[in-house]
Specification:
402 residues, alpha+beta, 7-stranded antiparallel beta sheet, 3-stranded antiparallel beta sheet, 15 strands, elongated, transmembrane helix, membrane
């Protein structure tokens, strides 16, 4: 039932475990609660900082229901799918212009999460069936990838900065209710949405009062992306195209002077993992018995249809909240070294370095003797041989003037 979804590419590298955990944490976080942004650390319990900006990950959700075409009533097998225990019921096929579809009804299958393969020249396209599964090119050709920029968006234009710095995009085709609609036409209950995960710049306002930390995003702006030619890696002799590292990508703030650099290979791993998770079906009435359900599609379906009843606005808000929580959790793994931390480290290191150089200068001024190989002796700079002998036993090493 994973209609028109690209088979996930097997890459030699693996996504960082922290990023995987962050994505999972965002998916399973309470959908009616926001994952808090970066939290400040204040030893005194009362601290104030000025607003600061940093690279972040954001989520955008757009309605694409106007791109749906809904068929007349049919049986699941006549529509080319199997709905398990619901095969005997009447359904409709709601199909987007990019080929993604949901075969279901309010009382059978309520959600399909999937993503399209990227259009390629048919003369070079690998064999594939109507489901769009692709087993071909894995060389990392950027024209076959839908990130930096997204090449499969329906809701966002190419001029939109979010498209140029996209990490991944996927689609949801769903019903806006899970009960029988009576005399209301079934075709009116089908809806669709596009989710776009993209890089952005967040401005944070943070403070700590009486030991309680507060942090919120006060502004979020888009970025423009361009290839970082100065960071291009030239492969060595005999290197295959699949082993070449792609160049970095510069992300420039559209509202400020910030410039950020990301590695395309790292984004490729993130894109692959996100798409491997966000796929599957959901049935409010039949659950996993309908087939095609995944852990993520179950979490999404529960968030969307868990209310009793869920209004169309509630469903849309649930998608927005869940994907925003994923984006915020991911941001925390990307932005893990901020200026307050740097200041603390500097305040600790500077006195230590001053003290170290003071000892070096003092030992030189006192014309001390150095013991060349014994570590303990070297640690006792400035002490005379007879004193070392009393403290450490017989000293046999030669001494030399400082």
């Amino acid at each position: 039932m994973l209609a028109a979804s690209v088979a996930n590419r097997v890459l030699p590298e693996k996504l960082d475990t922290r990023e995987k955990q962050a994505i999972q944490s965002g998916i399973y976080h309470a959908v009616d609660e926001e994952v808090p942004p970066l939290q400040p650390i204040c030893s005194s319990g009362d601290c104030q900082w000025g607003n600061f900006s940093s690279l972040a990950i954001c989520a955008a959700v757009a309605d694409v229901s106007d791109r749906l075409t809904v068929s007349s009533q049919t049986r699941p097998r006549d529509a080319g799918v199997s709905l398990g225990v619901a095969n005997g019921e009447t359904v409709r096929s709601a199909r987007l212009t990019n080929g993604l579809f949901l075969v279901g009804s309010t009382t059978t299958c309520n959600l399909n999460v999937s993503w399209p393969r990227i259009p390629v020249d048919t003369s070079e396209d690998e064999t594939g069936d109507e489901t769009g599964d692709e087993t071909g090119d894995e060389t990392g050709d950027e024209s076959h990838e839908s990130f930096l920029p997204a090449r499969t968006s329906l809701a966002f234009s190419e001029q939109d900065g979010r498209v140029s710095n996209a990490i991944a995009n996927f689609f949801l085709v769903y019903t806006n209710q899970t009960a029988a609609v009576g005399s209301k036409p079934q075709q009116d209950v089908f809806r669709a949405a596009e989710v776009l995960l993209h890089f952005c710049v967040n401005t944070y306002q943070v403070s700590t009062s009486r030991g309680v930390s507060a942090s919120k995003v006060v502004h979020s702006s888009t970025l423009s992306a361009q290839q970082d030619l100065s960071n291009k890696v030239v492969p060595g002799r005999g290197a295959s195209s699949s082993s070449q590292q792609s160049p970095g990508v510069l992300l420039r703030s559209t509202t400020g002077s910030g410039v950020y650099s990301v590695k395309r290979d790292d984004v490729r791993l993130l894109n692959s993992y996100v798409l491997s998770l966000f796929s599957g079906t959901y049935s409010y009435q039949y659950g996993s018995r309908i087939g095609g359900e995944t852990a993520t599609s179950e979490a999404l379906g529960t968030a969307m249809f868990g209310g009793n009843p869920s209004s169309e606005d509630d469903i849309r808000d649930a998608v927005r909240n869940l994907t925003s929580n994923v984006a915020t959790s991911l941001t925390k793994t990307q932005v893990n070294f901020i200026w307050p931390t740097a200041i603390c480290i500097i305040l600790f290191l500077v006195p230590f370095l001053f003290f170290f150089f003071f000892l070096v200068l003092l030992s030189s001024a006192l014309s001390c003797k150095h013991y060349s190989s014994n570590n303990a002796a070297r640690a006792l700079l400035g002490q005379r041989p007879h004193r070392l002998a009393r403290c450490m036993g017989h000293v046999t090493e030669k001494t030399a003037p400082c």
